[in-house]
């Protein structure tokens, strides 16, 4: 979880709008189990299981540009239908999936 991921995890605006942060996922195995905003980070290998078990419908991508499309594809394949994209790249998604690009 980088600086942006940590900032998003700690952002109170999600909860005030009725959204909960269900999970934090990172590719770095050294981060697995470490809490950020009180939520233990899970390894990316668990992404599909987390989405299914937590009933996730909205995903947030805060990765480097080179990793964003692969993460997006996995989110969509696991059933996520809305994505907030903080990565500095445009994502390709199938019809029925809504992507909101966020430029900071």
Brief sketch in words of this structure:
It is built from 4 helices and 6 strands. With about 100 residues, it is an alpha/beta fold.
CATH superfamily: NAD(P)-binding Rossmann-like Domain
Mean of the pLDDT scores? Answer: 95
Architecture in CATH?
3-Layer(aba) Sandwich
CATH topology: Rossmann fold
Placed side by side, the strands forming the largest sheet appear as 1-3-2
Largest sheet: 3 strands, mixed
**Helicity, as a percent range:** 25-40%
Shape: globular
Strand fraction? 15-25%
What distance lies between the first and last C-alpha atoms, to the nearest angstrom? Answer: 17 Å
Sheet/helix structural class: alpha/beta
Low-confidence stretches: none
Strand count: 6
Q: What is the total number of structural domains? A: 1
> SSE string, helix = H, strand = E?
HHEEEHEHEE
Which CATH top level class fits? Alpha Beta
Radius of gyration: 13 Å
Number of helices: 4
